[in-house]
Give the backbone structure.
Amino acid sequence: MTKVPSRSKKMKAKHFLKCSGAACGTVMFWNAKAKRYELPQTQRQALNSELFTDHPCPVCGALLERYAYTKDGQDKVMLRCSLLENRRGKCKEVAFFQSRGEFWSPKFGTLKLPEPQV
């Protein structure tokens, strides 16, 4: 890993770490609270394979991820595109909401997931 200087106002540190190996795109940023270098949030989430389904995004083909949120005091789960940059752009409308054991989307219809094996 090599230190790369940065002028970004979003970063607390004036640098980040980047893997210097060929075909390695890993970067790590300083977390001042934890006092250590960490992977970006999206890469940390990608390490948790339980978040991902076997179904592709209907727009870009990336895997759909489970996203937990709270609405009106109730915990809910939805499926969305797993690629952050696509969720902000072309996959903005990809959202499957959970209802009666199925996931449905106003734009893409119903998506049935296999029952989890216990």
About this structure: The helical segments are 41-46, 84-87. The first helix runs from residue 41 to 46. Residues 2-39 form one domain.
